[in-house]
Write the structure tokens for this entry.
Amino acid sequence: MKQITKLLAGAAVATMVSFGAHAQEVTLTVHHFLGPKAPAQSKMIEPWAKKIEEESNGRIKFEIFPSMSLGGNPPELYRQVRDGVADIVWTLPGYTPGVFPRLEVFELPGVHLGDARATNLAMWDLRDEYAEDLTDIHPLAVHVHAGQAIHLTSKEVRTVDDVKGLKLRTPTRTGSWVIESWGAEPVGMPVPALPQAMSLGVVDGGLVPFEVVPPLKLAELISYSVEGEGVNSRFGTSTFLFAMNKDRYESLPDDLKEIIDRNSGRDFAAEIGDVFNGVEEVGKRMVNEGKGQVVQITAAEKATFDDASASVVDRWIEEANSNGIDGAKLVEDAKAAVQSHTK
């Protein structure tokens, strides 16, 4: 009888432990560098978090900390998620040069063709080719924005000769290489610092998508925003990483992991692309309704920029090869994948 009682008691404890694990509730912190009204939070992170909260019946909750409100500066975000300071971050791999050598390929001239959805799907297709870059974190998404226009405080530019000598902001080293190839001077800084830099004359302008014009109030500072026409209308793009601390992810019960996994795959990458494509027109409208104007240069004028920056690809391939990466193959694969998804 005593043995039966012990067995029943043991079964009861096991059931309680099992139920407790299954019913575990977690709150995950999300840290990023833009404000709460920026599309990255309002149209990407918040809907994603809400969907997961609903699918988990409230067992997963999120606390979102915009504008670096957990401390530090934007280049520290990757370290913060890697080390567990934040559970999840949204950041640019380009803020930590050398850590993501393969992901850089999507920023190179001629790879991104102006459609964030197409490039995001290409990034998903090629995920095995850059997986080694992401071994220290659990990736939720890698993506790009719609592409960079050249936003200027005073001078209108139409060809590459017009930008020579100008100081232009960029967030990444590949962006710096492009600006140098044009004969301009790159100034590296996270995008939240751009408005002050433009207003004080530290830079003559910057390479950013129209998406950030509203949250950063850049329309008050821009005289000209320059882009091309049709496919390949932009001047490259930046890659972004939405990532979770690896140990934090592994600590979740399997059913909660499955919910996060289900909302972090190919469809999510496509949705992010649609978000960033969709917010560009708002920024354009704000420029035109403000003190500035959007200038669309001709294909021939755009080609002067593209021809000048072609050397950047060769430079990147040479460096990749020196690090044991087949740079030429990665560029070829990235271009083909993007083109396959571009309408």
